[in-house]
Amino acid sequence: MAIQAPPTASASTGKSPASGPRPAALGRRVSGTVTDRIYRGALFAASLVIFLVIVGIALQLILASRLSLHTFGGKFFVGNNWDPGNQIFGALPFIEGTLYTSFLALLLAVPISVGTAIFLADIAPRWIRTPLSFVIELLAAIPSVVYGLWGIFILVPWLVAHVETPISNNPKLGTLALFNAAPNGNDVLAASLILSIMVIPFIASVSRDILRAIPKEMREGAYALGATRWEAISSVVLPYARSGIIGAVILGLGRALGETMAVTMVIGNNPDFHIALFSPGYTMASVIANEFTEAPLELYRSALIEIGLILFVVTMIVNALARTLIYFTARNTQGGGRRG
Which CATH code is given to the segment(s) 92-339? Predict the structure, then answer.
């Protein structure tokens, strides 16, 4: 008896059941693949442009400061004398002034910022959380020159009348090295206060996001063991978010290091470093803003650009460190949430 072969096509369509995708579906798949490649290429090109801009800025700063690098070498970083008339330049007072004002700003801003972040993440009722978050973020959007004008007309007179003069007239406090200077107003103290106000939004916003990223199971476990809200925050939440908060603080430090206009308007602009809070000073950013347009000689301009190069490198390192800490904290909190 002869065995017949199975049919190879459907009686109604005349096509094989095992045939491949229809031409229309295949066309859509090919078109989607091409679109995805174009999209990925566009994103890569955008990222590459940002990288090239950063590299270009670094190269331009290096090339423009070659004369100063060749003339002074390593002495530029440790020299105390800034004498444009005799073409002698040392950047140490500006480096010290930048680090000093930034440190004082963080000393004032960190407790307020972290406290605000804890309040917004764990304590604030819903009706005030959103408006307060908006106000904090609004502080970051205020232009630097507005802070400077506020400092000149409001902060500086208030400091002279209510802070610096009473401290200077005090027979004990006035003799301390930290306050041993005549009340001035345009000084390191005013610049540090302005900087602290300007970095509070950055530290508070990032710290709040870090605290919100901590899994709820961590808090609930602490409450289940009988911990109070303060004990849960201080013993569980803050230790878990420590690296991220440190990253937020370093991010605020990067903001403080590079601030220019507001600091220039209130710091007094004196090319000598003094530890007294009531003494005028200088920062790397403010000396560039003040003197670059008045630098007629090539070596003078090159020295100012080298200060910009130093500030660029320091800021890049600080921001990279902050982003790294925030990244590892976010990854650890996500991992903890999955394990929970």
Answer: 1.10.3720.10
Residue that the structure tokens 């320091």 belong to: 314
Residues near 304 by beta carbon (within 8 Å), at least 6 away in sequence? 287, 288, 291, 292, 295
Helices marked H in 151-258 — which ranges?
156-159, 165-169, 188-213, 216-224, 229-232, 238-240, 242-258
Domains of the chain by residue range: 92-339
What is the dihedral angle through the alpha carbons of 188, 178, 82, 298, rounded to the nearest 10 degrees?
Answer: -30
Q: What is the 3-state secondary structure (H, E, C) of 312-326?
A: HHHHHHHHHHHHHHH
Exposure string for 108-135, b = 16+ CB within 10 A, e = fewer: bbbeebbebbbebbbebeeeeeeeebee
How far apart are alpha carbons 76 and 152 in whole angstroms?
32
pLDDT per position as a tens digit, 240-293:
888 889 888 988 988 899 899 999 999 998 999 999 999 999 999 999 999 998
> Residue 1 is encoded by which pair of tokens?
């008896």
